[in-house]
Amino acid sequence: MFNPKDILKEFSHSTKTHDEVRQGEALVIDAPVSTNGRKLYIESYGCAMNFSDSEIVASIMQDMGYATTSDYKEADVVFINTCSIRDNAEQRVRNRLKEFGAVKQKKPGMTVGVLGCMAERLKAKFLEEEKLVDMVVGPDAYRDLPNLIHQVDDGNRAVNVILSREETYADVSPVRLNSNGISAFISIMRGCDNMCSFCVVPFTRGRERSRDPRSIVQEAQDLFDAGYHEVTLLGQNVDSYKWTSAEGNNQMEHTNFANLLEQVALIDPTLRVRFSTSHPKDITDEVLHTMAKYSNICNHIHLPVQSGNSRVLEMMNRTYTREWYLERVAMIKKIIPDCAISTDVIIGFCTETEEEHRDTLSMMDHVQYDFAYMYTYSERPGTLAAKRYADDIPEEVKKRRFNEVMAKQQACSHARLQEQIGNVYEVLIDGLSKKSDHDYAGKNPQNTTVVFPVDARFKPGDYVYVMIEKCTPATLIGKIVN
Ligand code: SAM
Ligand code: SF4
Ligand code: F3S
């Protein structure tokens, strides 16, 4: 079953940890009701924010009377919510569109829509390239879906890829797709104002904008009231969240990310709060102190490093150095000693030398990441790096360096898990383990999967204390000690 807590990514080469990630799975509601007799199939790729957007799309389509289905062959409307982050992410979408096209040829009434980042990147060109696509809709245009669907029903092809400076879909109540009823994503902001030279996101998602904190807290409260026990606050750079509102007497009220975290944590001590992604240049001590103050804010920070070498970081336009990053890590370990730290690494960025690659390996030795998402560099059209630098590291060198980084991370993840044998963790039960109906699986605050024998006293959604007895390379194994 889809686990919405996992941060969903597209990746060039995968690791064991990444196998947990579900890409391109049909997203369905538990109790679909169609009031217009039509069915929607929606499939999502890319990051957690894209999955969260699919829940906005499902909500808008539900208001139009659509029910969701897990079988695209029986759908009237097929949506694919796409990712452009690396070339292979786009190739997967193209292949999937061929499969949808084959069905559409036999069923001409079927509407095929491309949503998300690839729609935004390619715009109307998509319609020229993919003859069977009827609609191209960018991430800020989902409110226009009813109109676009009518255009297609009238026999036209429809495009809306206008990016907005304001849209946050704050008032759209997402329909929870493939939900386990325990964990949910909440988007707190959209877009990105950083210009990392390798990255297509600023072009596909537009300018950064934060969502009204009242609507975020209300959404978290509604989820809690509906029985959810965990929310993950999402943004490309959550630490730059900021909201200013004019309160009574024209006093300006400012909310930063630390304030928002606190407001969500205060909903209830049994509501776990997670967040992703933190940018090393922006994560503040105030956020770390807020995490330390509230036990329901989970002790895990995803802090993408990208490279361990300051020259490469500068070419990447990450705006921090190796030393800055190491100082932030030291501060995390000081303020929250048992905090898990995970990362993203790009391997084989333009001009990266062997020595600079070794700086990334030594960074991993210093930090001892709990887990990492690793990618070989993929040049993206239109980005600063594509314009300025040659993608000059040969593919076989990228692969060899990737294998070195992966081997180091696997050894480190395993060692980190072994250190935890003997510890007792509070675990939120997600459901049965993937491997055995006799075991439950859940996450500890550090976001590691913990597996332990089913105990009839407890059900999914309950918290239990688990003593860790052993581990596999990616999982802790133990027994309930409540
Ligand atoms: N906003 C987050 C941040 O700044 O860390 C992450 C955004 S991106 C959706 C997720 C990861 O994809 C990045 O951290 C980076 O490691 C990777 N990535 C982005 N562009 C890439 C590219 N052109 N080639 C390979 N990996 C890339
Ligand atoms: Fe891309 Fe950088 Fe923005 Fe992250 S912070 S989304 S890597 S531009
Ligand atoms: Fe991909 Fe867009 Fe997310 S490019 S990683 S779906 S913001």
What does this structure look like?
α8 (257-265) runs parallel beside α9 (285-293) and α12 runs parallel beside α14. The chain is built from 14 helices and 21 strands. It starts with 38 loop residues before the first strand and ends with a strand. β18 and β19 (449-453) form a beta hairpin. 47% of the residues are buried. 32% of the residues lie in helices and 22% in strands. The protein has 482 residues and is an alpha/beta fold. A 6-stranded parallel sheet has the order 2-1-3-4-5-6, sandwiched between helices. It has a 5-stranded mixed beta barrel with strand order 17-18-19-21-20. A 3-stranded parallel sheet has the order 7-10-13, sandwiched between helices. It binds S-adenosylmethionine, iron/sulfur cluster and FE3-S4 cluster (F3S).
Low-confidence stretches: 1-21
Q: How many beta-strand segments?
A: 21
Widest β-sheet, arrangement of strands: 2-1-3-4-5-6
Question: Could you tell me the radius of gyration in angstroms?
Answer: 22 Å
Largest sheet: 6 strands, parallel
Pairing-aware structural class of the strands and helices?
alpha/beta
The overall pLDDT average reads 92
Give the DSSP E fraction (strand runs of 2 or more residues).
15-25%
Net shape: globular
Q: What percent of residues adopt helix (DSSP H or I)?
A: 25-40%
Termini separation: 27 Å
Count of helical segments?
14
Enumerate the distinct ligands: S-adenosylmethionine, iron/sulfur cluster, FE3-S4 cluster
